[in-house]
Structure formats: C-alpha cells, structure tokens
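Session log. Operator J.P. requested a structure for one protein chain; no other inputs attached. Running the standard single-chain path with token output.
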Amino acid sequence: MLLNVFLSSNDRPRRRNRLALLIVLIVSIVFTLAAFVKVSSIFTSSKSGPQLLSDPFLQLPAPDAVRVVWFTEFAGSSHTVTYGLNRDRTVTATTTQLSRSREDRRSRVGQQTEDGQRYAQTVNRPIWRHEAIVSGLEPGRRLPYRVTSVREDGQRASSEEFSLAPAPVPGTPLKILLTSDHQLMPMVAANLQKVVETVGRVDAVFMAGDLVNIPDRASEWFDDNRGGAFFPCLQGRAHYSIARNGRKTVYRGGQLIQHAPLFPVAGNHEVMGRFSMEMGLNEQFDNAVPRAIAAQFYPSPATQLNPVSDLPLREDWLNNNSFNTDTFNEIFSLPVDRPLGKNYYAVSFGDVRLIVLYATNLWRPSNLTASTRGRYRERQKDLNDPEKWGYGQFIFEPIAQGSEQYQWFVAELSRPEFQQARYKVVMLHHPPHSVGANVVPAYTDPVQIVERAVDGSIQAVRYEYPKSDDYLLRDVMPLLESAGVQLVFYGHSHLWNRFVSPSGIQFLESSNVGNNYGAFLDNKQRSVPAGYRETYVATGDPNGLDPVVPTLAPLKDKTGKVLPYVASNDITVFSILDTGKGAVTSYAFDVRQPTSSVVALDRFELK
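Structure written below.
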C-alpha cells in the first residue's frame, strides 16, 4: 500500500525521487529498530544480571574508620569497597549468610500480592551480608565510595557512588535524625523523603526500635512489593503510594544511611518467637515465651535430642523455643565492647554520648475477651495447656536494680566518655512517659494469678503488673536524674509527644508514621481492666508528667483546642537533634496535601 502511494505517478523522474525517498525511509526505520533492539537488550541484560539486594549503609564509625555493609542474594566470589578521591583504594568485605531469613504465605514479595500465591509454607531465603572496614580516614573529611559484588560466574554488580567519613570529633556540628517504629507503615517513605528535602544529608540516624514487623521475614527488610521495606525507605529506593483526596502520590524515602551511620535499638518487633518451619512467621513471632518457661519444657525433648547433656545444644534449643534477636544481630554491627551477646551498648559520636538500653517487652492485646491471649489473661481454650500460654507482656532483658544490664548502665554513667560529653542521650524502645496506648501496664514482670475451682480445675489465668514495681520508673529514672541525662528518646506508641521532668530531662517519643493507636487524654480512655488488684491508668501519662504543647505550630482539635501530641494517620513527624545549636526540632508533614511545606512543629534546647 505504501509502495503504491509512492510510485503512483506517470512522471518517471518523480517516481525515481519517490523511490529514493522510500529507500531512505526504510533504511532509517531499520537502523532505528536496530538501535532500539540494542538498547532494549542492554536494559534487559542489566536487569537479568546480578543485582545488589540493598545499597550499602554505614555502621560503627571509629576515629579513622567506618564499616560499610550491604546484602546480595548470591554468595559471590568477591565483594569490595572502592573509595578515595581518586577511587584508588580498595578493601575486601567479609561475607556471612543470614541464618534465619525466610518468606512465607503472608510475605508480599515478587509476584505474591495475596496470601499463599507463591509460598504455601515457610521457606528459607538465602541472603548474604557483606561488611568491609574502610580505614585510614581523616576526621572531618568525607570521601566517595562504591561497593561491588562479583557473582560466581564472574558477572558484577556495583552500587552508585556515595560518601563516607569516620566518627566526628567533639565540637563538630551534627544533624541527627531521631526516628522509630517504621514497620513498613504507610507514611514512612513520605517521612524520610521530607527529612532529606528539609534538612539535607544527616550525619547519623538514631532508631528507637521496631524497624520491621516480623524480623525473620526477609522481604520486610529488602523488597516488600508494596514499596515500603526498611532499607529502601532509608536509602531513597522506596516506591510507596499514598492516596488522599482522590490523588495518589508516590514517595521514595530518603538517601540517608548510605552516607550516615545507623544506630538501632532492639524493640519488641526485633524479637522473634519460637522457631518453626511448619508454622507461619506471624504465628512464630507471636509465639514467644520466657526463657525460664522454655527451660521447664526442655527435659521432655532433651532425652532424645540431647542425651549427653551438651550445653551448647541445650542453649540452642532454648533459643529456638523461647525468643531470639538473631536476625537483628546478624543484620547490624553493634559495638564489640558491649557485654557479649547483649543488645545494649554505648557509643560516642561527636559531642553526643549515646547509651542504648534493651528495654522492651512482648506486646499483647489489651482486650479481655475469652478468645484473647493477651497482656492481662490467657485464652479460655488454652487454660489446661500451659505450652500454649503467652505469659503476659514479659520482659525480654532484665533491667531492674541488680540485673546485669542495670549494673552495666550504672558503670556507663560513671565513665569519662559519658561524664565529659556535651550531650548525654539515652535511647530505648519502651516509653517511660507517654499518652499513648503502650505505656500501660507498668514495665515490670507479669504476676501470674491462677484461679481454680473447688475441684482444682483452672478457671482463669490472668496477669497483674504492680505499678510500684515499674523498673523504668523505680530503678532507671533515678539514675537518669542523678547522671544529668538531657534527652531520653524512645518509641512504641506510634505518636509524637514530649515531656519534661522537674530536673529538666527531655523525654521525646517521635514515632508517628501511619499506624496510630491514639492519644489518651481528657475523655479518651485506654482499654484497661476493671476489678483487678492493680489500678491501671486509663488517661494521660501513668507516670505523672503532663505532655508539653508543641512550641511552634501545635495541632488543634475540631474545637480549636491545641493538642500536646500528634496522633494521626495523615500527619507524620520527624525530629532532628542539631548539636551545633543544642536543640531538637520536630517537623510535621500532612500527606493529604502533598504539595504543602513541612512545618516546624516543636523546638526545645538541651540544657
């Protein structure tokens, strides 16, 4: 048809010209298609070749060094960091395989967008971690770097170029992001994107726990297909869509931890329950029991599993049948001078001495229905089967006076690194003060009460939490007061609120990223039991402080009353510790108005 149009003329010269034009057109089309095929093949090749599972991120800066960590889904033959102004220095990484990374029917990974589409049961997912110590660095001097992993077949995968630096010296002005409770929540990507847009590159990230939901589910860390996994959000590679007012906005998170070290706390969502390859990961997470209870159950299987009473084998069984933080410990580099195997530590970073406490307990529902294995009671159907009990909201690591962690904390407060620091900061997961839901009951060991009938049968199993035995209030707070701690940062209740003690300690919870349980003031009451031995506080801070109204732009309720908190699934908050100004500023962003500006919500100085 095209040829007939071109040649339909009785004028031979004109026909020859048209034929020449047709030939040129065909040749052009051929070359264009060839170029397209070439570009397409290159693109396809790069996508089908080896890929890094994460961008690199920074850990444990030292005076002349910093650690670079990244992940792949292949063991590889070589993993290196190239760095320096001329990119002329190379260091080789040490590679380890994560021992518990898995997926299951509730994972949202690859093509699985509904339960069980790809994974009918729990399966292992092989993932390798690479860590290189980049040394010979100079304080205050930032250098470019990139990482490269070579697969066994010789194919290479490299990151983009980022920057690194050693630990800052005292006197260096720093901007430190205070964040918590990401858990793949809806506003995390927006929150972190606004951090970068508002303050630029930060110098460190202090993360007060609950990084993901289920710690052994690999996709929650790396590639959950809903677009909001942990590392992508903190590395600017997220793709999380928020729809509000008929408009959909995609947020990418922020390129943060490729340039700044991350200091994490173990929250309750970093703790995995009893290990199983038959049970789903959510069920394993909820199925934790205290170590002492697992030890009671141990003698029965031990006769076959461990007839020679091998101590490491016994410890491994107890770890698998109580709770563990194995994945958290394998992903992150915690200071080597901390007590062996513990999740509490202390580091110096510029003018800041940061003490991280492992203070968290198992979260359980607060309702009292017969079908609930909750914080206040056991399920009715489980009463005669103690192996199915939940044992209330038990504490994972003791912190009461006399415990190993308490004694370590006392020693840390007396060290010159803490005494001489300009800013003394304590970070933990559980709130000492809050108007949120999770500050009740008291942070103490559950007291089990078994109610029996005349014939001895169990009628009920419930748990009490004596407020007078709250370990944070009774034992930890006096240490903070006497040591001159200026800031206590924490999470867990998924909101923003702040308190000031009579001595001037600032207590800040900044964890409002889209899974809000509410704030309980005035007429709004928490779900607490009535008729128990203890009296559980339904409104306000149970530990006696009034929340501070934000100093710059507090939110208001429908009546125009200012609110001393942010408890919202539409407004997200992040906080920045600026050591140069000696102040903490919290910023709010309304995802319902994606083109609006970030608003400075609150600011206070560290005395």
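Operator note: The chain has three domains: 2-48, 52-162, 174-288+323-605.
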